[in-house]
Write a structure and sequence with these properties.
Elements: H1 3-9, H2 20-29, H3 31-39, H4 44-50, E1 54-58, E2 61-68, E3 71-77, E4 82-84, H5 93-105, E5 115-117, H6 128-134, H7 136-143, H8 147-156, E6 160-162, E7 167-174, E8 177-184, E9 193-199, H9 208-224
Antiparallel strand pairs: 1-2, 2-3, 3-4, 5-9, 6-7, 7-8, 8-9
Helix pairs in contact: 2-5, 2-9, 3-5
């Protein structure tokens, strides 16, 4: 079993009002395990290429450069600590784990250019209702039928417009992990609807529970914008 599959094989926590917090807790607990697994690999340069990251070696010191929602980050080896590339400060534990999962899981599969719902990810149906609750439903509460406000927020975050729904935007969370947020206006028969979608290749780069955390992060970013 690959390291990235161990997380999904563990007993899943009971769904709470905010189940994503359970995912984050499990993520932060696995930081040291993920670092240990990566240190045992002899193909870190290949893994960096699979991630579409830049591998920079200077003697025994290695730096892996990539971006997270457009923010430059660097992961150093052998300590495997992810830092803000500009400030040089370590990122929060949940982001450490997310980036380490990306480095561990990536297999270089090309993006498919086909959108799927969270429920279509491996084991995604188990959490799909909860995922929609803390992503799409939160966006409905905030934006409702105000597609213009949603559009402004999405563009503020660097979203790229796509012809999907009444408004849709693509976000590059990681070099090879892209998400789309799509909005549909409501009418007298249907309520407005917002959904976070994933490129069909997502499970080649992150486990499903980590995708849930990523979707929650993007939702919080849109609400803040």
């Amino acid at each position: 079993m690959r390291e990235c599959e161990v997380y999904l094989s563990q007993k899943k926590p009971a769904i709470s009002k905010h189940p994503v917090e359970g995912h984050k807790h499990l993520l932060t607990k696995r930081v040291d395990e993920l670092r240990a697994a990566l240190r045992q690999r002899d193909n870190l340069q290949v893994q960096a290429a699979n991630c579409s990251a830049t591998y920079q070696a200077d003697g025994m010191k290695v730096k892996i450069h990539l971006s997270f929602f457009g923010r430059p980050v660097v992961v150093t080896f052998p300590d495997l600590v992810a830092c803000d590339a500009q400030a040089g400060t370590p990122l929060p534990d949940v982001l450490q784990a997310l980036l380490l999962y990306y480095l561990t899981t990536a297999d270089g599969t090309p993006l498919e250019g086909r959108w799927i719902a969270f429920a279509d990810l491996p084991d995604g149906r188990f959490y799909s209702q909860a995922f929609q609750g803390y992503t799409g439903h939160e966006l409905v509460r905030c934006f409702g039928n105000d597609i213009e406000a949603f559009t402004l927020a999405a563009k503020e975050l660097g979203g790229v417009s796509i012809a999907y729904g009444d408004a849709g935007f693509v976000f590059y969370a990681l070099p090879r992990v892209i998400l789309a947020v799509v909005a549909w206006r409501g009418d007298e028969d249907f309520s407005p609807n917002y959904q976070i979608l994933f490129d069909a290749s997502a499970n080649h780069y992150l486990p499903t529970d980590v995708c849930a955390v990523l979707g929650s992060m993007l939702t919080r970013k849109l609400l803040s914008a």
